[in-house]
Model the fold of this input.
Amino acid sequence: MPISPKTVREQVTNQIRDDLVSGRFEAGSMLREIELASRLGVSRGPVRDAFIHLSQEGYLAYYANRGVMVRHPPNPDERTFITSIRQQIETHVVENGIQDLTDESFQKVEAALERLKEACDVGKATGIALRDIEFHESIMRACGGEDLVGAWRQLCSRMLLSYSRHDNYQQTYQEHLEIFTSLSARSVKRTVKALKANIK
Done:
């Protein structure tokens, strides 16, 4: 079951992130606090906080005295480079932490996989993209990679701005199920292979 946001700031942040991933905002466009606050029916404070948070995640770029701009998706060469780095980070974390998985942390990975399945069943591209990254982050944290999550999120946000793996929703789920199954078997080799096959 999806996790409900607990604060107005979280709700606003989630909504703007959804809009960014879905392509509602044009790359390179400037976002305005007043306009978004009016559309979302909130004060400027939560929008300002959301801008800071989403800039830290890599979706937005902050410019002094100008505001925040929607970042451009990577070109093909940049995407190949970003994909390579992301693969290295995730495989490094798994290789070094898979044997330390606890039942509690593994249950969080399983819950993230279930949310991804629900998104694939619904077939909404934006939801699939976000649940995809949520699943991978749950593995990062379960394997002790918390210190790398910040840098890793920056890479993922760039990839999400040009996320295009929606031609076959069930294939998307099956790829992640293979990662999960390999992880549950504590097989480093199989998990790394499944991760590399999925991160493209």
User: Anything to note?
Assistant: The chain is about 70% helix and 5% strand. Residues 8-70 form a domain with the Arc Repressor Mutant, subunit A fold (CATH 1.10.10.10). The radius of gyration is 17 Å. The longest strand covers residues 60-63.
